[in-house]
Amino acid sequence: MALRVTNGDSSASDFVIFIAYLVQLYEPLNMLASIYRSINTALVDTEKLLKLLNEPVGIKDKPNAPDLIVTNGEIEFGSLIPPVPNRYVTHSFHAFM
User: Fold this and answer.
1) Cα–Cα distance measured from residue 60 to residue 56, given in angstroms and rounded to the nearest whole number
2) What pLDDT was estimated at residue 65?
3) Does the CA dihedral 19-23-29-34 come out positive or negative?
4) Confidence category of residue 92, pLDDT binned at 50, 70, 90
5) In angstroms, how far is CA 91 from the centroid of its own chain?
6) Dmax over Cα atoms in the chain, in whole Å?
7) Rounded to whole angstroms, how far apart are CA atoms 15 and 31?
8) Distance between CA 44 and CA 38 in Å, rounded?
9) Displacement of CA 26 from its chain's centroid (Å)
């Protein structure tokens, strides 16, 4: 199209109309491609989640074990030292709640 304008076969307004037509054509296609990518990503994430849920459980309750009832939710970590071999510990972690 640009060659036709430079040769004088078409006017500059024809070129502008052609570009506007292309923009109107590609905008919906771009939106559809974006929606496709979102759906595809969601499906892949769902597949990964289902694989994770199907992993065997490492710790199992004993048969007929009662439910754990927590009244005051507190966690205490006491004197934790990160296991890094052959390195100096620059600080240590003490109890916190």
Assistant:
1) 10
2) 92
3) positive
4) low
5) 34
6) 89
7) 25
8) 10
9) 26
Query: Any idea what the Cα angle at residue 18 is, between residues 16 and 19, rounded to 5°?
Result: 65
Q: What is the DSSP letter of 51?
A: H
Interacting residues of 11 by C-beta distance below 8 A, sequence separation 6+? 5
CB 81 within 8 A of CB 93: yes
Q: Cα-atom radius of gyration of the chain, to the nearest Å? A: 32
Distance between CA atoms of residues 3 and 15, nearest Å = 10
Question: Which ranges in 1-97 belong to alpha helices (H)?
Answer: 2-7, 12-53
Residues in the chain: 97
* Residue that has been written with the tokens 């849920």 in this structure: 53
Helix (H, G, I), strand (E, B) or coil at 93: strand
What tens digit of pLDDT does each residue of 20-72 get?
A: 999 998 999 999 999 999 999 999 999 999 999 998 888 888 999 999 888 88
